[in-house]
Amino acid sequence: MSSQDIPEESLPAEQGHERGAVATTEDPFADPGLPAHRPRIQDIDERAARRSERTVALLFTLSMLATVAFIASYVIFPVDKFVYIWPIGHISALNFSLGTSLGIALFCIGAGAVHWARTLMSDVEVPDERHSVAAEPEVRAKVIADFKAGAEESGFGRRKLIRNTMFGAMAMVPLSGVVLLRDLGPLPELKLRKTLWAKGKLLINMNTNEPLRPEDIAVGSLSFAKPEGLEEHDHGFQTEIAKAALMLVRIQPEEIKDKKELDWSVGGIVAYSKICTHVGCPISLYEQQTHHVLCPCHQSTFDLSDGARVIFGPAGHPLPQLQIGVNDEGYLEALGDFEAPVGPAFWERG
Fold first, then answer.
1. How far apart are CA 155 and CA 122, in angstroms?
2. CA-CA distances (angstroms) from residue 312 to 72, 81, 119, 258, 299?
């Protein structure tokens, strides 16, 4: 509030016009009063008021349409459909549509309410008188005198070295709180996105601890493998096998529906992560006739003949596939890492 807006009787009286003159008043906290009410354009122009009314109605209508879109998203988008949204990347079409539509619905309600309040509702300020909260003059005088005496006795104004070092210490102490952020946990880096699988790593049978050949895997069988070099006595074995555990199934090539799955297989042998994409349980139940694998924890079911897509249960993503091949010695080997992060989704796998 500028001085022009304050009534003259509330301004402190000037004792002089010289440079450095100090203005004084009996009550330095005098009530400056309220500025004169200025009507808005909507208060004096009915056409402007109607425009604001239509704007508010439009925002509420957009909110209703967004709510309808939110409900329709459940019907339109399957849970396993992914789309590319720049700059987010690949994201669940269902999650994106639900979040966007609900966000628009809530935003339009809030924006409509704010516009309504600022343009059409009354904006006249009504003061509410309060009793004085100031202490008695004698009490204030004693407090000020005690404060001045304490400041003088402390030497705060004279001993600049103490004063400046105290300010420095008080400014540095909060920095120690930054160090506590380190205890929130280690940075994930790329640990959740990468496993021990890499080009040229042999597939080792989890039961025999021997490299696997294509002829070791019969049609309709389910085998489990780990990457070459990972041993049970290793310090980080449990951490690494939780990401690198692999299951192998041999399917007749003509029964594989997904082209990429067929291209990444060897004679119908497909390799998929053993870790369920719901909460990370190990998958171990295989139905030979349908080529379905079932997670025993929450019954998420994946079709290994069709890209391991989810056909039942709460899992939100297909099982990641590992591209495999045969080396010169006839052993199965990995041709890279999994196509996507293993296990439950995190940050929409961004």
1. 55
2. 21, 14, 52, 18, 7
